[in-house]
Design goal:
alpha/beta; Aldehyde Dehydrogenase, Chain A, domain 2; 2 domains; 7-stranded mixed sheet; 5-stranded parallel sheet; binds nicotinamide-adenine-dinucleotide
Length: about 475
């Protein structure tokens, strides 16, 4: 009997939003085999033709924007404005890589032998597997699918069972635009289906985004057999220097820590404040956190949506309890919401002070609206604290001193660094990815870099015999 995937409303778990039939390993094997048969034709199309279909898919996606955003809100729980922004982001990513399909160029040079031209070309790998998380249910799938398809690969994508609806719709849109059905297929299910994709002999590469443990397990499993890209978790710091505007610093901290209930890999999990501003910023941050309005994604005026499910909420509450038991002070939040919100996975924005090493909020990724606040003597100590975690995804600094900002950039161990911006965010045309344990490979996603992972390079020497 195939398993059933049941998606419940994160804002009210009594409501079933959708059910899906899960695939099994045999289905994944059949999909990969079909993808292998379909890929040569797709990869053989001129890049601009593939680009045309991706442009068309982006336009179709925009047309479905509102309906799709509502589906994301219902399944994943984020605010409607954020879901709409995410659909728009997915469309922008498709357009960007449609352009890249037209620009799949290489290097050109005179060869050492007279009358010979040397050039490089990039070509598709063949069949590639994609495994994606639930927290950006359309943007992350789009930023993997678009470069993979632009380069001429055939793709099997496995979305998270927590919110697979957006990927089903994105793939439907790609088919409607003219991408052949066997060139892009969706496998539904959990770890078993992901592992079947990782192990399939047709797959030449696996691109994974998700938690650090699963990413490292998969990296070890496929090592030496397929190319692997793994974008993983983070524990991202925002440093506030003493010269910063405290109002701006609190805005950045609130947006970074509590937007999407902290369920962004790049969310601000640690706030490090230079001592002269510590008391002022900490008090204002906690006060602002207490004012933020919890509510379902579609509710007018809601600022902090629910967590994805009660399991996720329990995990976050455990980490808060462990910090409290070890001496942390809870200045706001720290408990599950009750009253009208009690059936959802709501956690009030949580600010922790007096945190120290050994607390999970500092050592691990706690995936919710929780921010641990520390003070630093000076910039040097702030940088040491910022780097004192195994992760290196994103980091930010709030200051008006450009010299000190660049000192931070140069010494930060994060793959993405912001100055006077929140830790989350980035543009579709720029590379995205982490360092240290936040990445299981050096490959970057998004921007022109993204296509590298999905292609191999060939160097060609063409002897034309001419004089020049
Ligand atoms: P997860 O690791 O639990 O799951 C991610 C995907 O892997 C899902 O599709 C899941 O079904 C699949 N999976 C789980 N176990 C597997 C296994 N043993 N073998 C194969 N596949 C398996 O992560 P999640 O809870 O869906 O997402 C949240 C995590 O993703 C957070 O850690 C977050 O930081 C991270 N994330 C990272 C980025 C980034 O770009 N660095 C972006 C978004 C989310």
């Amino acid at each position: 009997m195939p398993a059933t995937i049941v998606c419940r409303n994160p804002a009210d778990a009594r409501e079933v939003i959708a059910t899906y039939t899960a695939h099994g390993p045999a289905d994944v094997a059949a999909m990969c085999a079909r993808a292998a048969s379909a890929q040569p034709h797709w990869g053989g199309l001129p890049g601009p033709r593939r680009g045309e279909l991706l442009h068309c898919a982006a336009d179709l996606l925009r047309r479905r924007g509102r309906q799709l955003a509502q589906r994301i809100v219902a399944e994943e729980g984020k605010l409607l404005a954020d879901a709409s922004g995410e659909v728009e982001r997915a469309a922008a990513v498709l357009h960007f890589h449609a352009g890249e399909a037209e620009r799949l160029g290489g290097e050109l040079a005179d060869a050492a032998q007279a009358g010979t031209l040397a050039f490089t070309r990039r070509r598709a790998l063949g069949v590639v597997g994609l495994i994606t998380p639930w927290n950006f249910p359309i943007a992350i799938p789009a930023w993997k699918l678009a470069p993979a398809l632009a380069a001429g690969n055939a793709v099997v994508i496995k979305p998270s069972s927590a919110a697979p609806g957006a990927v089903l719709e994105l793939v439907e849109v790609l088919h409607e635009a003219g991408v052949p059905a066997d060139v892009v297929q969706v496998a539904l299910g959990g770890a078993e289906v992901g592992l079947a994709l990782a192990d399939d002999p047709h797959a030449r590469a696996l691109s994974f985004t998700g938690s650090t443990d699963v990413g490292h397990q998969l990296a070890r499993r496929v090592s030496g057999r397929v190319r692997f890209q793994g974008e993983l978790g983070g524990n991202n710091p925002l440093v506030v220097l003493a010269d910063a505007d405290p109002v701006r610093a609190v805005e950045l901290a609130c947006e970074g820590a509590f937007a999407a209930a902290g369920q962004k890999c790049t969310a601000t999990r640690r706030l490090i404040i230079e001592r002269p501003l510590y008391e002022t910023v900490l008090a204002a941050f906690a006060a602002r956190a207490r004012e933020l309005v919890l509510g379902a994604g579609a509710t007018e005026g809601a600022q902090v949506p629910p967590l994805i499910d009660s399991g996720a909420l329990e995990g976050v509450l455990d980490a808060v309890a462990q910090a409290r038991d070890c001496g942390a002070e809870v200045l706001s939040g720290g408990a599950r919401a009750d009253g009208e919100l009690r059936h959802g996975s709501f956690l009030a924005p949580t600010v922790l002070a007096d945190v120290r090493a050994g607390m999970r909020v500092l050592d691990e990724e706690v995936f919710g609206p929780v921010c641990a606040v520390q003070s630093a003597r000076d910039l040097d100590e702030a940088i040491v604290l910022a780097n004192a975690v195994p992760f290196g995804l994103s980091a930010s600094i709030c200051t008006n001193d450009l010299h000190r900002a660049f000192e931070f950039v140069a010494r930060s161990e994060a793959g993405m660094v912001h100055v006077n911006r929140p830790t989350p965010g980035g543009d579709p045309h720029m590379p995205f990815g982490g360092l240290k344990d936040s990445s299981a490979s050096g490959w970057r996603e998004q921007g022109a870099e993204a296509v590298r992972f999905f292609t191999e390079q060939q160097t060609v020497y063409l002897h034309h015999g001419g004089a020049r």
